[in-house]
Design goal:
heterodimer, A: mainly beta, Immunoglobulin-like, four-stranded antiparallel sheet, B: mainly beta, seven-stranded mixed sheet, 11 strands, 50% strand, globular
Chain lengths: 112, 114
């Protein structure tokens, strides 16, 4: 069985400050890792994904994440956030061809 | 580029009624997943289909059923609706032959049960 833990339910941050959203996972098999963003009353948009290869993954909107196998983590980072980044962020894990297992989500609140 | 289409986008039903949600995957995608996201919750996997056969089943109530048709679209049928069924229902599609498990999500159907 796979599980995902997002360590922070809410992260408040000032505009133009850096941010890190934490995600840890557990799995007995090799996994694919994803970060999705959900704006209020909207669907899920893929930010970035780790399938294999380089452990530093770059995504859309200036986000990046680093896969750390030894720590079973896949933290999401952005060096400078904007007001428009205010949304809920979900970390998810799957094994090949299988369902996504989501974390509980982290609400990023960017303040001016 | 074509995206996943879900209909209807919004649906209001009374308790004990039935509802049918439809999902049209991206062309050439042969796998469809259904997820349920309750208020303030993370999406929970319900069921998936690959090549018109059920491939996996999650926490889907017995009152719900689903199928994938020959054109790969899928329908989620929900009967004896309960207040707790009020949620956002997402459909996602993928094409495992691409070598990844990236799932492309539709905009969701918001079901409200009164």
């Amino acid at each position: 069985a796979q599980s995902v833990t997002q360590l922070d339910s809410q992260v408040p941050v000032f505009e133009e400050a850096p941010v890190e959203l934490r995600c840890n996972y557990s799995s007995s098999v090799s996994v694919y890792l994803f970060w999705y963003v959900q704006y209020p009353n909207q669907g899920l948009q893929l930010l970035l994904k780790y399938l294999s290869g380089s452990t530093l993954v770059k995504g859309i909107n200036g986000f990046e994440a680093e896969f750390n196998k030894s720590q079973t983590s896949f933290h999401l980072r952005k060096p400078s956030v904007h007001i428009s980044d205010t949304a809920e962020y979900f970390c998810a894990v799957s094994s090949y061809g299988n369902k996504l297992v989501f974390g509980a989500g982290t609400i990023l609140r960017v303040k001016s | 580029a074509a995206g996943v289409i879900q209909s209807p986008r919004h649906l209001i039903k009374e308790k004990r009624e039935t509802a049918t949600l439809k999902c049209y995957p991206i062309p050439r995608h042969d796998t469809v997943y259904w997820y349920q996201q309750g208020p303030g919750q993370d999406p929970q996997f319900l069921i998936s289909f690959y090549e018109k056969m059920q491939s996996d089943k999650g926490s889907i109530p017995d009152r719900f059923s689903a199928q994938q048709f020959s054109d790969y679209h899928s329908e989620l049928n929900m009967s004896s609706l309960e207040l707790g069924d009020s949620a956002l229902y997402f459909c996602a599609s993928s094409f495992p032959g691409l070598g990844s498990n990236e799932q492309f999500f539709g905009p969701g159907t918001r079901l409200t049960v009164l």
